[in-house]
Structure formats: C-alpha cells, structure tokens
Amino acid sequence: MYFLGIDIGSLSCDAVLIDEAKNVVSSSVVPTGVRNLEAIARVTKDVLEQSGISEGDIAAIISTGYGRTRVENRDGAVTEITCHAKGIQEVIPGTRVLIDIGGQDSKAIHIGENGNVLDFAMNDKCAAGTGRFLEAMARALEVDILDLGDLDRGAESDLVLSSMCTVFAESEVVSLIANGTEQREIARGMNRAIASRTFSLVKRVAREIDGLTISMSGGVALNSGVVRALRESLKTDTIHIPEKPDTIGALGAALIARERKA
Amino acid sequence: MMYDYFSSIVTGITAKLEQDPQGIHARKRYALAVATLGRRLYSGDARIAWCGVTAPFDLLNSMGVTSCFVEFVGAMLASTETAELFMQGAEDAGYAADSCAYHRAVTGAMLKSAMPVPDFIIGTSSPCTAGLAVMENMAKQYNRDLFVVNVPQSESPDAVRFLARQIEEMAGFVGDHTGQALSRNRLGEALELTNEATVLIKEIYGLAKQKPSPVDSRFLNNFGVVITLFMGTREGVDICRGFRDELRHRVATNAMDASQERIRLMWVQNRIQFPFPLESMLAEYGAKIVVDELNDVTWEPMDPDNPFESIARRILSIPFSRNADARVTHLQTLAREYQIDGAINPCHWGCRQGTGLRGIISNGLKEIGVPVLNLEIDCVDSRNLAEGQIHTRFEAFTEMIQG
Ligand code: SF4
Known about the structure:
The complex is a heterodimer of chains A (262) and B (403).
Chain A: E1 2-8, E2 12-19, E3 24-31, H1 36-51, E4 58-64, E5 76-77, H2 80-91, E6 95-101, E7 106-111, E8 117-122, H3 131-141, H4 166-178, H5 183-205, E9 213-217, H6 224-234, H7 248-261
Parallel strand pairs in A: 1-4, 4-5, 6-9
Antiparallel strand pairs in A: 1-2, 2-3, 6-7, 7-8
Helix pairs in contact in A: 2-7, 3-4, 5-6
Chain B: H1 2-19, H2 26-41, E1 48-51, H3 57-62, E2 66-69, H4 70-79, H5 83-92, H6 101-111, E3 120-124, H7 129-142, E4 146-149, H8 157-178, H9 184-208, H10 223-226, H11 234-252, E5 263-267, H12 278-284, E6 287-292, H13 307-317, H14 324-337, E7 342-345, H15 358-367, E8 372-374, H16 387-402
Helix pairs in contact in B: 1-2, 2-11, 4-6, 5-6, 6-7, 8-13, 9-11, 14-15
Bound molecules: iron/sulfur cluster (SF4).
C-alpha cells in the first residue's frame, strides 16, 4: 500500500509518494502554471512512473496547498499548516519552530512537544518576503534566481532594503545599482529585509525561541543568503534545512493519508 | 435612495411577519426595528443626532431625538455592498486608504450627500478618537454644533464625577438645540426601560453560555452594539424579549445542534459587515461563534434618581473605554464563562483597538490556554479581503484546535 500527498502551491506543485513504512518512494516538483489540473496530473504521473507502481496501489491521497480542493480523486484536503508541521516532524524530529517561505506566502508555525500545532501566523497583505519577491529581485539584479543565494558572500554593510513592497523594492534596487552600490551589498540588504519580516512572524507565534529547534521549509530555504540573514536576525547558530525543503508539505500530506488509512 | 431602501426592507419584513403573527422571529423583528430606525433617519422629518458609539442613547431617546452612531451607517453601507463607492469617494478626496473603513465609508457618504444632515452632533472619545475626527469633519461640513464627551480611561470616583458632569451638560446642549429641556421624569422612565431590557439581555447571554449553546454563529451578530440604540424605549424591551423567548424556545425544544459545536469560538470586536459566508465556512469545520466581545453587560442597573452618574458608570464600565488590560481581562472572563475553544480576532485595518492590541490580546488569551486566530482583515472594505486566504486560516485554525 502506498500513500500520496500533493501540495498545490502558487508557484510549484509537489507530490510525494510513501510506503507503509513511511519511506519516500518517489517525489516530483513541477511549476503550477496557470492550469493547476495539468500540474496535478503531471506530478501524479511522475511519481507513479518513478516508482513503477500503478494508481490502484495508492491507498489514499491527501491534498494540501492553496489549490487543495482541485485534486479530484483526493480522500481529503488538509491545510498546508498542518501538513508542513507533520512533514517536518518526520524529517527533522523535535522541530519546534518551522519557517516556511513559499511562492507567495510565508508562515511561521509553533509546534508543541508532541508535534501538534500550537500557533501559526501567515503573511497577510502581500507577497513581500516570499518567492515572488525574490523572483522580482533577481530580475532587478539581472541574475538567475538560483544564483541569488550566494550573491551576498563577503557583503558587510548594514543596508536593509527600506521597502518590502515588491514593486517599490524593485525600483529601490534599480536606484542602488545606479548609485554604484555593489551587487553583493544589495543582495544582503534584500535578505535582511526578508529576515526582519520573517522574524516578526516567528515572534508572533513563539515569544521565546531560545533553545528551540528551528527548521525551514519551502523553496526559499534553498537560498543560503536568506537562511544566513535569518540566522542572524533570530540569533541562532542553526536553522535546520531538510534535504528537499520544497516537498515538506506534500510529505506531510502523504503521512496524514497513511494515518487516516491506518 | 436610502429612504427607499429602508422602506422596502420595512415593507418586506412586515409582510413576512404578517404571515406568522404568532411566531417569535427575534432576528426578523430586530431587523425590522433597525430598518425602521434607518428609514426615520433618512425621512427628513425627524430630529436627528449623529453620535459616537458610547453616547447615552436612552437619554437621547427620552428627549425625542432620533440618534445613531455613525459607524452604523458604515456597517449598513457595507452590508448593502455600496460602501466601496463611498470609500472611493473619501479616498479620492484625500482620506487615507488605510484608515478605519467605517469612517471612510461615512466620510464618503457625507461628501456625496448620502448622509442625513443632523440637527447636532455628539462625539465620544471612546472607543476611538478616530470617530471624533469624523464628527469634527461632519460638524464643519454641515455647519452644525458638536458636543464632545471626553471619556476618561479610569473608573475612579473623580472620573465618574467628571463624566457625569459632561453628560448633564450634554443634556443641556441637546435641550438648547431641540427647544425642549430634559424631563427628569421621562429620563427616569427611560432608564427603567433600560433596566428592563438589560435584565432580558443578561438572560439572553446566560442562555448563550449553555453547552451546547442555543445560538448559532449569526444569532447575536452585532446585537450588543446595535441594541444600545433602542435603550430607554419599549421597542428595545420588546426586541430583547424576542431574543430571550427564541433562545428559551430553542432550549426547551432541544433545537441546539451539538454537531455544529465541536468548536466554540469567541469573536473579538466587530464582525465582518459585508456579505461574507463566515458562518457557513465555520460550520464546515463544526465551529460556531458562541460569544462576541461586544455582547456583554458590564454595568450595574441604572439608578433613575441618580441618572447622570449611572450613565457615566455604564460608559466607564465598557472595557473599550479603558486600557488594554481591561479589555484583556474582560476577554479572559468571557472565554472562561462561555467555555470557548478558540478566539478569532479580525484585527480590523486601521483600528487602534483592532490592530493596535493584536499582540496583547493574543498573549492574554494564550495565557489562559485559548488559541487566537488573527486575521488582519478589513471588516467593512471587501476590496481588502481574499476569501481563499480566510478559508485556509479558518481551516488551519480548526485543525490546530482539534489536534
Ligand atoms: S473599528 Fe476601531 S477605528 Fe473603527 S470605529 Fe471602531 S474602534 Fe474606531
């Protein structure tokens, strides 16, 4: 018996297939695009092909993410908050604070000792500080988004982008470039801006974070510059990053599918 | 336009009630009273006063003044989905788009001459001084006199005396503008009616506390704030009796649906005023609102022999008139009395009470083990709300409560 979790986010659609022993059998991440039904079909096909199992072997499907109700053959839909908390506990047990920064939302989740969600906060009014923000910044800096992470290496200034509105920040970056500010300083300023916004999300859910295991999921966890800035602002040496941070929601969904079938 | 709108509601509800004259229909009768008040405000032949939320409406009713707090108009425009037009007008005239939308809507309505011109205005510094600024603008716009009631943030004997004196002066101000001095007899009768209604309101809240609660998420929506407009009148007593009778009936006939109450919720401050499927969304998750922060009686019965002091004590007892601690303590008390599982704070945009106290309220409720969902939405301006986001937050919150 196998269990499938599908996470339909605004930027990417992820699927994770697990077996009864909770081993990840296969996973897939594709851009969601404008037609999310196609993305759902693609990730499902991917995980089946990779694992060589047939659809009939899947005992339960749980969907999550903003498009969770679009998965027609689902056995249930669970929010990304619950799924991320569940997924991270599996790969980084003992996580008490999870920061998830995805395509267009970011969230902080406070997790109890027994893995239950104690509180959560999500960015509310705009996509500032999320994957979309980074995309716009990469465009303004004329670099590939995958190269953003290391761009701030060696930067030392205290620059913080003053505006977190994606549009204004983009024009701020353009002015900084025009003023001759080094690319790495701008990148650091951008990472620090994201970190300060995320810091307040974390503080909203957990006033005391000293000694708590902090982990991060979502595609932005792959950006080492943002992670470094977050470590600085949270005053912590370690932020745990799972091997595939962008599939944690889908993994959590698959684990919930397994629990519900038990 | 508004007169016709209210008239059509009055006609529609009256016709429905006539089909079942013996039925209780508490909310319909309440809606009828509200629409009738709206029609009177827009009729052009009533003596009207625009007021702050904590104005003493029983006193004003006893003086024959049709009075109403301006936020009522903001809520009403939102509920009829016409607020956007007026808010846009206010924004175009230079009002900040992130100020409280109740006031933006009212200001826009004023600028577009969609507010009845008052005979005079009574502003109150509680629950917010933003409301006072609207009153000042209104006084200028309509060239009308404004009386400001300054509500101190304390319940000390000095504060009571200070406020009582202002209420007495206010009665003099009203008398000067209506040509009819306050009658102590009529005020005494009005306060007796307030007391009669308050006994019923306490019973209503007592019934709502039961587990399972006979209320559904909608039943007491906006009740505590709006009923103040009918204080001091027989109509107010009748509305309250209707609500009480309906709840008694629900309890007696076991009409409470326990399956809809897996999660008991408290709503902090004001509800969402524009059409929004809040109740059905919550019901999907077996959750319902059993108490609103604004639905409570925090004062002692009015003393008709000592009316100004009584009214002053009532205003000062309202947690919104005091400091953050008073609000937190009050919310904690409600949380315990209603045995709630969680609280939802909409954190209405631009509101000092709503967004300003967000963290303090969350921490206060968390301290007693009550989780809080902070929504950060605009309760009046639907342009600022994404339904999908709210859905996800409700769902995640109920998943969290259920573990
Ligand atoms: S919502 Fe807040 S700002 Fe608006 S009227 Fe009420 S207390 Fe004042």
